[in-house]
Write a structure and sequence with these properties.
The protein is mainly β. It has a single domain (about 5-140), classed as Jelly Rolls (Sandwich). About 10% of the residues lie in helices and about 60% in strands. It has two helices and nine strands; from the N terminus they run H-E-E-E-E-E-E-E-H-E-E. It has helices at about 5-10, 100-105, and strands spanning about 15, 25, 30, 40-55, 60-75, 75-85, 90-95, 110-115, 120-140. The strands form two sheets. Strands 1, 4, 5, 6, 7, 8 and 9 form a seven-stranded mixed β-sheet that branches. Strands 2-3 form a two-stranded antiparallel ribbon. Strand 2 and strand 3 form a beta hairpin.
């Protein structure tokens, strides 16, 4: 007896939901959790979210992906930022003055690449003015 996979099932690829409702200190702020590459986060915009991603290499590209669900209004801005270990420098990627629903296409997916330096904990922040639920994954490419 087979079932149809939902867009959410396909997007999360067997990952486990992390509710990210902790308070983990990093870079002078509080992150909701350490998000493992085998986990995903469900959240809601507008607003922001902070998580920690642990890396094993000195240089890592983080792939940050969002599946937009329950879309209400598109907003015009999404900002993503990842800090190096030690929090002295960061890399950000953003879209501004764009209809974010149009940008996410028929699949409703937004993807960002963030380069970080240093082995260890990296704070990753995201903020958007859109009105939408989301599923978020974070994958290191070391």
């Amino acid at each position: 007896m087979g079932g149809c996979a939902t867009a959410e099932d396909i997007f999360t690829e067997g990952r486990i939901e992390n509710r990210c409702n902790d308070s983990v200190p990093v870079c002078g702020f509080q992150a909701g959790c350490v998000l493992g590459e085998d986990q995903f986060l469900a959240g809601r915009f507008p607003g922001g979210q902070r998580v920690i991603m642990r890396t094993e290499s000195e240089q890592t590209r983080l792939i940050l992906r969002f599946l937009l669900v329950d879309r209400v209004f598109p907003g015009t801005q999404i900002i993503t930022r990842a800090y190096d270990t030690g929090c002295s420098d960061f890399f950000d990627a953003r879209y501004e003055d764009r209809d974010l629903f149009d940008l996410s296409g028929d699949e409703g997916i937004l993807e960002f690449e963030l380069d970080v330096n240093g082995r260890g904990d990296h704070m990753v922040e995201v903020f958007s003015d859109m009105g939408s639920g989301f599923l978020m994954t974070l994958t290191p490419q070391e």
